[in-house]
Amino acid sequence: MLSRVLSGDLPRSRILTVVLIVIVAGLALAPFVFPGAKALNVAAKICIFIVLVASFDLLLGYTGIVSFAHTMFFGIGAYGVAIALTRLGPSWSAVGAGIGAALALSLALSLVIGLFSLRVKAIFYAMITLAVASAFQTFASQLSEITGGEDGLNFKVPELLSPGFSLAEQPFLGASLDGKLISYYLLFAVTVALFLAMLRIVNSPFGRVLQAIRENDFRAEALGYRTVVYRTLSNVLSAGFATLAGTLLALWLRYNGPDTSLSFEIMIDILLMVVIGGMGTMYGAVVGATLFVIAQNYLQDLMKLASDAAAGIPLLPDLVHPDRWLLWLGMLFILSVYRFPSGIVGKLRARK
Amino acid sequence: MSASVATVPSALPAIMLDRLPLLLVPVLALVALPLMGSVSTWVTLTVAGLAMGMIIFIIASGLTLVFGLMDVLNFGHGLFITLGAFLATTVLGSMADWTASESLLINLLALLPAMLVAMVVAGGVGLAFERVIIRPVYGQHLKQIMITMGGMIVGEELIKVVWGAQTIPLPLPAAFRGSLLLGEAAVEKYRLIAVVIGLAVFAAMFWVLSRTKVGLLIRAGVQDREMVESLGYRIRKLFVGVFVAGSALAGLGGVMWGLYQQNVTPQIGGQVTVLIFIVIIIGGLGSVGGCFLGALLVGLLANYTGFLAPKVALFSNILLMVLILLWRPQGIYPVAKR
Amino acid sequence: MSAPLLRLEGVHTHIGAYHILHGVDLEVARGELTVLLGRNGAGKTTTLRSIMGLWRAAPGRVWFDGEDIAARATPEIAQRGIAYVPENMGIFADLTVCENMVLAARGARRAADIDAKRLDWIFGLFPAIKKFWQHPAGLLSGGQKQMLAVARAIVEPRKLLLVDEPSKGLAPAIIQNMVAAFRELKQTDTTILLVEQNFNFARQLGDRVAVMDDGRIVHTGAMDALADDEGLQQRLLGLSLAAHQ
Fold first, then answer.
1. How much is the pLDDT for A223?
2. Contact residues for C28 (Cβ-Cβ < 8 A; gap 6+)
3. Are C31 and C161 in contact (CB under 8 A)?
4. How close is the nearest chain B Cα to the Cα of A185, in Å?
5. CB A326 to CB B157 under 8 A?
6. In whole angstroms, how far apart are CA A42 and each of A74, A251, A259, A322, C181?
C-alpha cells in the first residue's frame, strides 16, 4: 500500500526511512510539538522548499538540465497570487485566478525556454536562463504599479486562512485553532500531494526516459525518443510545480516582494539543497530542504555563540559569525559535488 | 571538415576577413543618434557606453579564452571582479594624499599600484581556484557549473570576512572627476581614461595573440586541443596560464568597475556576471575579437537604453543576444572547432 | 639488424565500455615504411592513437627507441620525436599555413626560425604550401590540407611518423603527388607507420605490411610478398588488389 503511494520509489535505506518519518511527523505535528510563531514559520518554509527543490530535482537530477530560471517561476506563482489578492480582494476566486494566471504564464515561458534549450549546449542554456531570470527580477521590481516594486505587495488572504479567523476559543493541545493553523495544514496537505505527484512522475515511463536522456541523449535519440519533446515537457512540469510552490509562499506570508521569491540567493539555496540532499532522488529534496532551512534559522544562533566565544582571536570570530553561515554551507556544497554527488540520500543508500 | 570549405581555385583571392560584424558598432551608434534628441547627449552616452564596454571587455576576455581553450566555464568569474574592486578600496584608500592631488599624473601613479595589486592577487586566487575547484571536474559540465558557483559563494563570503559585508565607497581620484567639454557635450574624464586603458589592454592582447608563439598556441588550442598536444605542447600548463591571466584581468576590470560605480559591494561581481555572459555569447565563445565587439555593443546599448527606457535596459541586451544568435547561432566570430 | 624503432607488445585499448584492441603485437623497423592495413573498424586508427597516448593502452607495452611510452602523456610522446598526422588532418583552419607550420616546428618562434633548407625541400615536395603561405589554412582544398598536414609532420626531423589514411578522399592525381612525396621522404631514412585502406597507394610505398582485423594483427610480412599473392589478399582483405583500383 505504501509502495503504491510512493509510486514504488521506496527510501531503500533504514536510516533514511527513519529520517523521513521523523521529518514528516515533525511537519505534520509542528503546530503542536513546536510551539511558537517562529517554529511554525520554519515548518511552513520547509514544506514550501520541499516542493520547490523537488521540482528542481526533476529538472537537474532526473533530466540533467541546469537552469537558473527556477526562481523566476517561483516568483511568478507568488506574484500571481499576490497581485490577484491585491487587485481582486481576499476571496477564493481571486486565489484561483492568481494561480491560474501564474500557471499559464509559467507554462508559456517554460515552453519557450524549453524549446530554446534544445538547440544550445548545457552551458549556453545555463547562462541564458541566468540572464532571463536576472532580467525578470529587475523587471518585476520596476513595474511598481503592478508588483509593488521594491517594497512588494502586502495583501489579505481569504478569511479562513487569515490569522484573525478563529475556529475555536480554546487552544487545542497547545496550539490555537486559528487561520494560521488552517493555513499551515493546507500548506502541508498540498506539499504532500505535490511531492507524491512528482514521485509518480519520475517513476513513470516518462521519468525513465528522462533519466535515459540525462545519461546519454544521443543514445536516447537513437532509440527513437524525441529528446526535444521530453526535455521541454520536463521543463514545463518543473516550472509548474515551482509556480505552485510560489503560490503557497504567497498565501503563507501574505506578502511578496522581489527579494522574497526572485532573488538569486534563493536560486543558490535551491542548488545547495538539491546537491547536499541528493540529486535525482526526490527524497534528497526533503532532506536537503529540512537541513538547510533549519540551519538557516537555528545554526546561526549556534554560530553566534561560537563567534562570541572566539572574540579575542583575529579572523576567527568573523569566520564563524552567524552572517557567514553561507560560507560553511558553500564549502559543504563544494565537497558534496566532489565527493558525494548523490548527496546525503545517496550516501545513506550506499551504506546498505 | 573539408566539406564545409569551398574548393579553392589555384589562384587564391586576397584573404577575406569577416568584416561585416565590425559595422555593428557604428551602426548601433548611428541608429541611436536621432533618438537622443541632441548630439551632445549622444556624445556623452556614447563615450560612457564605450567606456563601460571596454571595462566589460577586460573582464570578459579571460573568460571567453578559458572556455574556448578548455571547455570550462567559470560561473564564479565574478569573484575576481569583486576581489579587484575591494582591493582597490584598500590600496587607493591607503594612498589618500595621492588621490586627493589634482595632478593627473600623480593620480595615475596611484591607480597603478591598485591595478597591479588587484591583478596579482586575483591571479593568485585564480591559480588556487583552478587547482582546487576546476581541475577535478574537467569535462563534466554540470559539475563545473555547480562547483564554480559554489566557489563563488565561498569566495564572496571570505571577502565579506575580510572587508565586511557593507558597501564601501570608492571615490574617484581628484583629477579623474568631472567632465571635459567637447563642444556642447560633457564627457566624463574617467570614462575617457577607461577607454584608453581598455584600448591598451586590447592592443596588448592582440599583440600577444597574433605575434607570439604563446598566442599562436592559444589560438590553435581553442580550435583543436588534441592536435596541439600531439604537436608536443603541454596544453594543460597553457590553460592554467590563461586562467590565471583571465582572473588577473578580471581583477583589473574590478578596479575599473569599482571606480565606475564609485561604490563597492560584495555583490558587485555577481551583478556584472549576467552582462559578461551575454557578451561572450554574442561574441562567440573563444573569440577575443568577438568579445571586444560584443562588449562594445552591450556597453553602448546599456547606456542608450538606460537613458531612453531604463526599465528595459537588461531586456534590451537579452534581445540583442537573441537577435545575434538568430543571425549567427554560434556568435559573431565562432571559433572553427574541429 | 637493429632493434625495431617501435614495438607494440600485447596492447589492449578500451574506449569507455568498448574493448577495441585485443592484444596488438606490432613491430616497426627503423628506416622502413610499414603499412597497417585493414578494413573499416579494424582498429587501425585506434592503434595510432594509442601509440600517441591519446587513448590509453592498458594493459600492454609500447616500446619506442627502447623506452616504454604506454603510460606517458601525449605531449611527452610527441617530444620524443613522434609526429602524428591524424585522419582528420588536424589543420588549424583559422591560422595561416605559415602559422600552422611554425606551430609544428617546436624550436621556432617565428617563420624565420625554421630551417630554411628544410623548408625549401618541403616547398619542393608540396608547392601549394609555398603558394598559400599567408592564407588561412581553412581555405585550402582537401588535398592541399592533407599536404599541409604531412608538411607539418616533417618541418623538423622526427624519428617516427604516424600517418592515418593520407589518401582518403583525394583525387587520383593528388594521390600520385602524395606517393612521390612519401618516396622522397623515405630516402631521408625516416621511419613511417602508415595506416591505409587504399592498397594500391600502400603497395607503392610499403616495405613491410601488417594487417589488422577486429583489434588484432592477423598477418605481418613483406609488402611485396602480399602484393604478389592474390589469394592471401582475398583472405585477409576480402578483396584483391584489382578491386582497389
1. 82
2. C4, C5, C6, C7, C34, C160, C191, C193
3. no
4. 35
5. yes
6. 18, 15, 18, 18, 78
* CB contact at 8 A, A225 and A212: yes
In angstroms, the first-to-last Cα distance of chain A is 23
Question: Helix, strand or coil for residue B138?
Answer: coil
Measured in degrees and rounded to the nearest 5, phi and psi for residue C164 equal -110, 105
B117 touches chain A (CB under 8 A): no
Q: For C102-139, what is each residue's pLDDT tens digit? A: 999 998 888 888 889 999 999 998 998 999 999 999 89
Q: From CA C146, how far away is CA C168, in angstroms rounded?
A: 9
- The whole-angstrom separation of Cα B276 and Cα A304 is 37
Contact (CB<8Å) C103/B220: yes
> B158 to each of A327, B116, B163, C231, how far by Cα in Å?
7, 21, 9, 75
Exposure on the CB side of residue C51, measured as CA atoms within 13 A: 34
The residue count of chain C comes to 245
Alpha carbons B275 and B56: distance in angstroms, whole number = 8
**Binding-face residues of C in 93-122 toward B, CB within 8 A:** 93-95, 99, 102-104, 106, 108-109
Side chain identity, residue B142: L
Q: What is the ipTM of this complex?
A: 0.91
C169-218 pLDDT, tens per residue? 888 888 888 898 899 888 888 899 999 888 888 888 989 999 998 889 98
Q: Pick from C150, C191, C185: which is nearest to C35 by CA?
A: C191
Q: DSSP E strands: which ranges in chain B?
A: 168-169, 179-182, 185-188, 263-264
Are C152 and C100 in contact by the 8 Å Cβ rule? The answer is yes
Query: Cell triple for residue B271?
Result: 551583478
The two counts, helices (H) then strands (E), for chain A are: 19, 2
User: What rounded mean pLDDT belongs to chain C?
Assistant: 88
